[in-house]
Amino acid sequence: xxxxIASAYVSLYTKMPGLKSDVGKQLSGVMPAEGQRSGSLxxxxxxxxxxxxxMMGAINVAKKGLKSIYDVTIGGxxxxxxxxxxxxxxxxxxxxxxxxxxxIMNSAIEAVTGTSYALGDAASTAxxxxxxxxxxxxxxxxxxxxxxxxxxxSGKSFQDTGAIFTxxxxxxxxxxxxxxxxxxxxxxxxxLLARQTGKTSAEVSQMVSKGQxxxxxxxxxxxxxxxxAAQASGKTFEGAMKNVKGALGYLGATAxxxxxxxxxxxxVALNPVIKSITDSxxxxxxxxxxxxxxxxxxxxxxxxxxxxxxxxxNAQMRAKVEQxxxxxxxxxxxxxxxxxxxxxxxxxxxxxxxxxxxxxxxAGFAPLxxxxxxxxxxxxxxxxxxxxxxxxxxxxxxxxxxxxxxFAAMFATNAQFRAR
Length: 420
Description:
Elements lengths: L18 H10 L2 H63 L4 H15 L6 H14 L5 H17 L3 H14 L4 H9 L4 H9 L3 H9 L5 H12 L2 H5 L3 H94 L9 H5 L5 H16 L6 H4 L3 H16 L6 H13 L1 H5 L1
Helix pairs in contact: 2-4, 2-12, 3-4, 3-5, 4-6, 5-6, 5-10, 8-9, 8-10, 12-16
């Protein structure tokens, strides 16, 4: 008897002297070169990708910048040109001569030059100040500059601040509501007036209550306390940026003014042309109106006849149905169930609805097909009744088809209506 006594393992080692050095020699000339080539290609690709992204980013920034410049120069220029034109028209309407208007516009230009405020706003404010009594020339220039200074300190728009100055000038005195608006905006009106008049704030408050602070005192106090603030704002980054924007807008206004002036003349010339066209078509539309009015009595009379027509057709349909019931009763046949409401439901699709109703009627007669040969003598009377009913159906093709559909819908949904 034999058996396995033990298992033995033998390790085999292959000795290959010089293999490591040979492999190293063979790869030493290949791997560095290929690695350098791959790295070079990767770096070049990254440079191209980053360069392309940077170029696209620069192009997008340039496009947005050009669009912004276009919007400010052309869009803003048109708005400014229109505001200036409107202000000049107001000045002319107030009775100013051409030279006065030119002087006031020069004051507006001087007031906003070097500030972030628009010439159009200054021109509109100048027109309002002129209407309230501010003289053109030096007084107008000083007041507009002061309005710009107070606007910068208070954070109000040029036109809002100008409205306060206009109110004080029109009233001839500073009142509490005007002072409150400036005080709430951070302008120390009482302190500035106290410095201007040499009185205390309490005394100045009493003077305001009594209406003793006139426009000249008010304007001088504002100029004393805030003179040059608007010009100083132009030296900040934000102010300088707004100045550039304003300068571009003024450039656009100068460039667009001739075109707008030409369009204005065209529009003025078109007004009488359009009025002439309107006058020429009036008789035509008057004739159309007269024709419609001639048709209205007939239309209204037909509408007024509709209730009676519906009642008569209802009676005719019921009579025909009862006649059919009598015929079937005499022949001892079951009466087909015809749902007239379902037949005519949906009043606008009259012919489609009638077809559906006829289909249901035919379906009701289907069980009788086997007895036709026994019913021939009686079909004469049935034919007469059906002919009458067909006349009713043909009426649906007339002008009252839609009304019939409406009536049928009422018949299908209103039990009281069916019981009548």
